[in-house]
Amino acid sequence: MNLAVSNILYKEGFVSSVTRGNHLGPDQTYTPTTNDNVATRRLWLTLKYKENTPVLSKFAVVSKPSKKVHFTVNELKNVANGRRAQFIKPLQPGEIAIVNTNRGVLELQEAIEKNVGGEVLCRAS
User: Fold this and answer.
1) 11 & 46 share domain
2) Rounded to whole angstroms, how far apart are CA atoms 24 and 47?
3) What is the DSSP string of 67-81?
4) Residue 70 falls in which region: left (phi positive, over 0), alpha (psi -120 to 50) or beta
5) Within a 10 A sphere around the Cβ of 38, how many other Cβ atoms?
6) How far is CA 107 from CA 41, 42, 103, 114, in A?
7) Contact at 8 Å (CB) between 122 and 60?
């Protein structure tokens, strides 16, 4: 799931690269993840900057282990269209939400296009 969230941040332009590596740094050559090395594997994200300020300025977790937040498609549409759904504030311009659906981890607009609801994982701006 971490790789899927990282790929969405990359696709939406918040980070400039996503690289697999270990606790020492990104891999120079491809190293497969096995049962022997899984504990040392990491994802390395390179932040994107615009005029010396990071493009990713806020990242907030919405769903927590103690309180899962599941939305229907209509509730996702409300959040995307500037209306509150449950206790979640609407998305602001330039902000995205990431949703875990039965079709995988998707960005909010993509989940609405595919007409699926799911667990709202986080939001980024």
Assistant:
1) yes
2) 18
3) B--EE-HHHHHHHHT
4) beta
5) 8
6) 25, 23, 11, 11
7) yes
List the domain range (segments joined by +) for residue 115: 59-124
Residues 8 and 43 in one domain: yes
pLDDT digits (tens, 9 = 90+) for 59-94: 999 999 999 999 999 999 999 999 999 888 999 999
Q: Is residue 99 within 8 Å of 118, Cβ to Cβ? A: yes
Whole-prediction pTM: 0.90
Give, in degrees to the nearest 5, the angle at Cα 66 between 70 and 85: 30
Q: What are the backbone angles phi and psi of residue 72, rounded to the nearest 5°?
A: -80, 175
